[in-house]
Amino acid sequence: MKRVMRASRKPLHNEKGYTLIIVLLVITLLLAFAATFMATSMNHSVQERTVESGNLSVAAAEMGIQYETAHFGDDFNQLLDEINLETTIKINKLRECIQPPIGTECDSEQDRKNYESRIESEIRALFFEKVFDLIGTYKTNSSSINMKKEFPGKAGFYIENVTSNLSSNLPVSNLKEIEMNLTVKGEADERTSTLMATVIFPVPDRFLNPDEAEKVQTNFVEVSEDITYEDIFNLQAPTISCSTLIDSVKSGTAVAPYKCKADGALSGIVEKIKTAGLDPKDFTVFTSNFVRDVCGLKCGNLNNLDFSGANLVVNSSDIEAFNNMNNLVNGNLIINGTLSVGNNLNNLGKNGVKQNVIVKGLNVDNNIKNMSYTNLLVLGNQDGTLADLKWGNHFDVDIYSRLCIDIDRIKSEDLTRLSKEANFKDSGSLIYYSKDPNKTFRLVQNNDYYVVRAPSYASFLEKCGVTLKKTVTRPVDMSVPSVIDANYDIQVDY
């Protein structure tokens, strides 16, 4: 049996085409991945640049705040230097007022307190005024974007707006802190960021510090006690003229109380005293010619005399006022003799300012009427002779006036008439003294309601408003300027 062998047929495979397709697919995928990666990278880069620009603009705004507040600190320090300088100037003027010769604004503790209060008020007002002006300059600088200040890299800032809690209604009494609000814009690569900054600084509680007072030595005129008759009428006339004394007081070489010899009319002397910034009440002017030095040789009467508080001592045994001597005000007059008035002595003290008229004797031809705010003292003679107390028609003692008499030195017939005819009313009174405890004085018409007996001569003069002055030196306290620190806080709102 014949077996026929058949050979099997194998299929043929050509793989070159598939490889190409696979390669192409791989390349396509790689390109797609690369494109995606590049797009993502570019997007991240843009985002990073955006964030960087934003950070730069914020940084620019922060730098702007630091820049402006640093300049504000410099300006504020300069402002405080100006305040401290002005305070020192005013304190130096107060010191000059306190030191001899002491000024009229400083001759009492209350006056000095008032002076310091004025300084405190004036410096506080100046502080608010200067701070208001300083803040105003920052408001002016915020008016335009062209005011932008640039940093390297095209970054910069400008002040967009400035507000404050300090208004133009100055000074502010109850404001404890001042706030200045700055709206600052920072720019970088066309990106803008805005920050709000608030500069807060306290208003000083006080500009003067009384707790650390400076001791200033000064002279004070004090009242002497236990005055006697001799103390009043035995005053020694000085040799220095009033003009020379006023110059010495201005230079600080004279010591109060000031006594001088008249070298002209009393009105001219008083005017020189006032022009020098001094108080006429601290000066005692001595003259031996009453009419000449208070009126002039050609005057017919002595009406409307105003001593402005000055003390006038007339060293003469007898003074004649020719005709009238009405309307004397602001006077402290001591006549070492008898005052003779040819007609009336009316309206003494009509301006309501207390004054003293002291004489040894009094002789008025007509009336003594409408006496107000005047102590009229008739103290009698020292040589043993009795003094006159005479008048013509009316003798009235009225509002807050006192007639003071030493009944041991006045003629008895004049005292008898006085007891019968003198008229006391309102707050007028009579005060008398006698060294004899059994000797009395009474008013017939008034039942002694207006009469007071003084137990001693010193108390008699004291009740009648007579004092003598002496000079003492002692330190007084004066406040010093407070140290004002330039402390302030900065709050930033992001």
Short description:
With 494 residues, the chain is α/β, with parallel strands linked by helices. The chain has helices spanning 16-98, 109-141, 229-233, 242-251, 266-275, 290-294, 412-421, 457-463, and strands at 149-151, 155-164, 177-188, 191-202, 208-224, 258-261, 283-287, 311-314, 318-320, 332-341, 355-364, 368-371, 374-378, 389-390, 395-397, 402-406, 423-424, 429-433, 451-453, 468-481, 489-493.
Walk me through what this model shows.
This protein is α/β, with parallel strands linked by helices and 494 residues long. Helix 1 packs antiparallel against helix 2. It is rod-shaped. Strands 6, 7, 8, 9, 10, 11, 13, 14, 16, 18 and 19 form an eleven-stranded parallel β-sheet that branches. A five-stranded antiparallel β-sheet has the order 1-2-3-4-21. Strands 12-15-17 form a three-stranded parallel β-sheet, with no helix packed on it.
